[in-house]
Every structure is written in C-alpha cells, then in structure tokens.
Amino acid sequence: MQRISANMLKIYIIFLLLILIRLCSFNIFNWINNSPQEIIPSNRTLGFDHIYVLHLDYRKDRREIMDKLLSYFNLDVEYFEAVSKYDKILNKFTNANSKLTVGQRACYVSHYLIFQSIIEEGFNNTLILEDDVDFEVNITEIMADIYQNLPEHWDTLHIGHCYEMIGQPVGSSSFPNKLYQSVNPQCTHAYAVSNSGAHKLLKLIDPIKPIGPVDYEISLIINSKKIISYSIHPQPIIQWKENFPSEVSFPTTFQFSLTNSTMNLLGLIDKNQYPGQ
Ligand SMILES: *[C@@H]1O[C@H](CO)[C@@H](O)[C@H](O)[C@H]1NC(C)=O
Ligand SMILES: *[C@@H]1O[C@H](CO)[C@@H](O)[C@H](O)[C@H]1NC(C)=O
Ligand SMILES: *[C@@H]1O[C@H](CO)[C@@H](O)[C@H](O)[C@H]1NC(C)=O
Ligand SMILES: *[C@@H]1O[C@H](CO)[C@@H](O)[C@H](O)[C@H]1NC(C)=O
Question: Is Transcription included in the keywords of this UniProt record (predicted)?
Fold first, then answer.
C-alpha cells in the first residue's frame, strides 16, 4: 500500500511539474507575443525597408565613389538599372508631343519603374538615391532623429531636394536638420516613398503624357495636396552632379552644401571640388 502511494505521489509530482512547465512556457510565449512590437529601424537601410540606387551601368566612376560611401556607412542597397537615353524601353513611352529632352524622359521612366518595383516587392517605405550623392557624416543619427518627428502617414519624404522654400515646421527637434511640410521640392537625388505614396504616384504621373520633368510633376502633386509630403532642411544628402549648381544663379537661401561631407572625409573630393566639376 505504502509503495503504491509513494509511486502515486511521484507521478502526481511529475504531473504537477509538467503542468507548471506548460503554464510557464505558455506565459513566456504569451508575454513575448504581447510585448510592444519594438520597431528597430535597420541602420543598414537608414531605417527604411529598402534602398534603391538609380544607376546607369556605364557610369563606373560614380559606382566606384558610391560603393566607397556605402561601405563607410555599412549600407545595404540595391542598384536599380536606370533607363538611359539609348534604351529601347523608352520607345514604349514615346510621345511625339513631349517637350522633355530624351534625358528627362529617361529619368521620368526610371522613377516610374522604381514605383512599380516598390509595389511589386511590397516595401512599406523605400529610399531612392541617385548615384551622385554625398551624405552628412552623421546621416544615421540625423535619420534616427527625423523618425522621432515623422508623422505616421506620409507619401514622400524629401531628404535631398533643390530650390525648395522652407514650409511649416513638423515636430520638435533640437538638431539642425529638421522636418517641415514640403513646399516645392525639386530634384530627385534622395527621397523616400511609402507604399501608399508609390500607389498614388503611379496613378498621378504618366510617362506617356508627361507634363514636365518627373520632379516638377511630383512638386505639382504636392502643391495640389494629393499626397502627404515632408522635407528635411537643411538637406543632409546633396547631389554633386557635374556643373551643379555653378551654371545656375540661385538665391543664397538655397543650400547646396553639407556641414560635414562624407566624400570630403573619405578624401573623394580633389582640391575642394567634386568630381566632374
Ligand atoms: C511592412 O510592414 C509590416 C508591418 O509592420 C511588416 O510586417 C512587413 O514585414 C513590412 N514589409 C517589408 C517588406 O519589410
Ligand atoms: C542606429 O543608429 C542610431 C544612431 O547612431 C543608434 O542610436 C542606434 O542604436 C542604432 N540602432 C541599431 C539597431 O544599431
Ligand atoms: C550632425 O552633425 C552636425 C555637425 O556636423 C551636428 O551639428 C548635428 O547636431 C548632428 N546631428 C545629429 C542628429 O546628431
Ligand atoms: C566631421 O566629422 C568627423 C568624423 O565624425 C569629426 O571628426 C569632425 O569633428 C566633424 N567636423 C565637424 C565640423 O563637425
């Protein structure tokens, strides 16, 4: 009798232990599931889902500089083959009445194809860079600070731009690079598009009947309030394209230089001049 009850006790204890383990694991499981979803922005993509670098395959010089910048920041990007002036795909989008140059049409189509790709891949937010940009050395910290102020719903975020006036401030940042409502951002060297933004832009722009260059059209769409857009001033990503902006006269209120250039830090600028200038 005594042996049986001792065995019974053992079984009973093991049974209790099993229940306890089961309860604990269930609780741990539950606790993990219920803990707030911490969204750690991936610094390798500057907090975005994805980075595309629009690149013309024959511009090996630009690719070389871009690769050095990317490896300095340890960034993870996808080079997106830009449509060139010589590309046959442009014929698909030919419009005899277009006032655009062939280069402007190629640029328009390239950005259009990127928006399509964003939808196909299902990216929530994507940074689009052109292959001739320079970054503030602390771009990662700047973007981390911008996310503190960036409203939940946005369609485009203009990190780099040109000839843009400063709009209404958004949020409160104690750092110099702050967020504003977009007014009239031109240029497409560094801007981000959300999934909703890509959907809207694909409906609103038309590479067969362009009204103007793609950046001009996007700024018209922003002005008509059909999309929600924000801009960073001063811009922490600039474009160093040939002859830019030396041939154009512009008011000094527009800023085209960086506080702390990464290309300068890495010795990629000769005699204080950007390549090709
Ligand atoms: C988009 O966001 C959702 C919700 O946060 C997430 O589950 C999904 O993985 C994201 N998509 C990509 C491509 O990162
Ligand atoms: C991303 O960069 C910011 C700013 O440098 C830093 O505070 C944060 O810890 C980094 N996050 C990760 C996941 O590395
Ligand atoms: C980035 O660096 C500049 C100096 O180059 C500094 O003034 C600014 O506060 C820094 N921004 C952030 C967000 O750390
Ligand atoms: C620029 O960045 C470098 C590297 O982080 C730093 O050593 C230097 O002090 C910065 N210069 C200015 C003017 O912020």
Answer: no
Q: In angstroms, what is the span from residue 135 Cα to ligand 1's centroid? A: 27
Residue nearest to atom 14 of ligand 3 (CA): 141
Q: Is residue 107 part of a domain?
A: yes
**pTM here?**
0.82
What pLDDT is attached to residue 276? 66
Is the distance from CB of 177 to CB of 233 less than 8 angstroms? yes
Domain that holds residue 24: 1-32
Ligand approaching nearest to the C-alpha of 142: 3
Euclidean distance between CA atoms 164 and 142, whole angstroms = 19
Task: Tell me, using a 6 A CB cutoff, whether residue 52 lines ligand 1.
Answer: no
Residue 38 lies in a domain: no
For ligand 2, atom 11, the nearest C-alpha belongs to 43
Looking at the structure, tell me whether residues 186 and 245 fall in a common domain: yes
Which amino acid residue places its CA nearest to atom 3 of ligand 2?
141
The answer to whether position 277 is within a domain reads: no
User: How far apart are alpha carbons 85 and 100 in whole angstroms?
Assistant: 12
Q: Are residues 26 and 79 in the same domain?
A: no
Q: How far is the CA of 146 from the centre of ligand 3 (A)?
A: 12
Better-predicted residue by pLDDT, 116 or 165 = 116
Domain total in the chain: 2
The rounded mean pLDDT for the chain is 85
